[in-house]
Design brief:
This protein is α+β, with helices and mostly antiparallel strands. The protein contains three helices and nine strands, in the order αββαββββββαβ. The longest helix is centred in the first third of the chain and has 21 residues.
C-alpha cells in the first residue's frame, strides 16, 4: 500500500471519527442549588405554567416553557389539562448575560494591546494572536419555582447556571432546567456541580 494511500485512509478515519463525535451526546456542567421543603409523601403530580400578564402571548416564554418540559417530566411531573386542575403551578425564569473580560483583569495586563487582532499573552508561557471578541463569555442561568395551586404556597425553588463562549440554544437551556431539578424533591441550598448528558 502506498504512503499516499495510507495517508488518505488515515485522514478519512480521522474525519469519520470527528463527525461521529460531533453527532453523539455531549455533557453540560452547571452549578445548581435548591430551596424549600417538598412535603413528605407528596407525589410530583400534575403541573401547569404560571405566567405573569406581561408573559401572555410571549414567544420567548413559549420557548422557555418548551425547554423546561422535559426536565419537569424527568422530575416526575405530568402536564395538567389546564391550570385550574394542576397540582402545582410552575414559574420559570432565565437570564443570559454577555461580558467581556477587561484586559487589566489579566495579571499580565501590560502585555495586552488593543486592536482588532492583538499579539498578547494567552496562557502559561504562551503568546499568540488573539481576537478580543473571542474573550466574550456568556453567563446562562435558569430558575424554577413550584407553587401549590390550591394554597399558592411556594413549595420548591431551584436554580442552575454555567458559562461559556456562546449564548446557547434551547437544548442547553433545557439541560440547565434539568440540572436545577436533578435532585428533586431533595433540596440543597449549597452551590454544587451537576452534569447533564444531552443528545445532539
Amino acid at each position: 500500500m502506498s504512503t499516499r494511500r495510507s495517508a488518505l485512509i488515515g485522514l478519512t478515519a480521522i474525519a469519520a471519527a470527528a463527525l461521529s463525535a460531533c453527532s453523539g451526546p455531549y455533557h453540560v456542567a452547571a452549578d445548581a442549588k435548591s430551596f424549600g421543603q417538598w412535603p413528605d409523601g407528596r407525589a410530583a403530580g400534575t403541573y401547569a405554567f404560571d405566567r405573569l400578564p406581561s408573559q401572555q402571548g410571549n414567544k420567548r416564554q413559549d420557548e422557555l416553557e418548551a425547554a423546561a418540559r422535559a426536565a419537569l417530566e424527568k422530575a416526575g411531573f405530568k402536564p395538567a389539562a389546564d391550570a385550574k386542575s394542576a397540582d402545582v403551578l410552575v414559574s420559570l425564569g432565565a437570564r443570559i448575560s454577555a461580558y467581556d473580560p477587561a484586559p487589566w483583569n489579566d495579571p499580565l495586563w501590560w502585555r495586552w494591546r488593543g486592536g482588532l487582532m492583538s499579539w498578547r499573552y494567552v496562557g502559561p508561557y504562551r503568546a499568540g494572536w488573539r481576537d478580543p471578541f473571542w474573550d466574550v463569555r456568556y453567563e446562562r442561568a435558569v430558575a424554577v419555582l413550584l407553587r401549590d395551586r390550591a394554597s399558592g404556597e411556594a413549595l420548591y425553588e431551584a436554580h442552575a447556571s454555567n458559562d461559556g463562549l456562546s449564548s446557547g440554544d434551547g437544548a442547553l437551556i433545557g439541560a440547565l432546567f434539568e440540572a436545577a431539578l436533578a435532585e428533586f424533591p431533595k433540596s440543597n441550598p449549597e452551590s454544587h456541580r451537576v452534569t447533564i448528558q444531552v443528545a445532539r
